[in-house]
Amino acid sequence: AHLLGPEATKTLLLSRALRCVRGSKSELLSLELPSEVEDLLAVSASQEESSLEVFSTIALWPLEEDLLVATDYGDTQHAEGDFEPVMYLSPDSYALVAAAPRVPADRVLDICCGSGVQGIVALRYYAKRAVFQDVNPRALRFTSFNAILNGFDGRFAVLEASICDDLPASLELPFQAILANPPFVPNPDNTASAAQPLYSGGGVDGEQVTQSIVAKAIGQLLAPGGRLSVVAEVPN
After folding, report:
1. pLDDT in tens, 185-197
2. What is the pLDDT of residues 49-108, one digit of tens each?
3. At the N or C end, where does the chain have fewer CB atoms within 10 A?
4. pLDDT tops 80 at residue 220
5. SS3 123
6. Residue 80 CB burial class (10 angstroms; 0-12, 13-18, ≥19)
7. In terms of C-beta density within 10 A (0-12 exposed, 13-18 middle, 19 or more buried), how is residue 230 classed?
């Protein structure tokens, strides 16, 4: 609270971007209600409580010259049907950032956007507007935060949908560029432990989501002369 101020600290604690533990046993405080946070901050300000520790639950990644991207930590555990983490910036994330052509575009679609890193780079360098699609609502909340954090408020929209299903008729088409870092870990019968989070499981052969992206991009989403940039691991 001394660094961020009480209101910012309160917001971060209630959103669980910050968590608080107490005592030698590291009791995790739930802090569900604003009044609980306010009481805790009052105790902390009076220095009556010396056993409190606060830690961040999110990672903040510097990118390019002047961008910041928030994600969950790489070892954040998922709980199926209850909590799906937002993927950290991995080597394939950086590869797509570096490889995607930076050609001026009116509208860009970031498919399986995760933290929104690809569309945010597009907004920074060559896109007027971006639409971010993901099936994970937590990813879209991170994306909105990251877009606003980097100064792109008013230039983006989010779409909660699966690229493997029919997209809503309200989606404005076409796009001059599509960026995608889809799940590509093979996961037959949900047996691959490495594919448990939504951002990893790519279906039986790892190509399910990629195939849907290519088919929809060619048949529906891309403008004539548009570009599709995808990163994936595809068996030979």
Report:
1. 777 776 665 555 5
2. 567 788 888 999 999 989 999 998 877 766 666 678 898 999 999 999 999 999 999 999
3. C
4. yes
5. helix
6. exposed
7. buried
Check: CB of residue 232 under 8 Å from CB of residue 182.
Answer: yes
Q: Which of 141, 12, 70, 29 is nearest to 4 (CA)?
A: 12
Preceding omega of 62 cis (within 30 degrees of 0): no
The residues, ordered by sequence, that sit 6+ positions from 108 with a Cβ below 8 Å of its Cβ are 119, 122, 123, 127, 129, 130, 131, 175, 176, 177, 178, 179
Conformation bin of residue 32: beta by default, left when phi > 0, alpha when psi is -120 to 50: alpha
Q: What is the pLDDT of residue 97?
A: 98
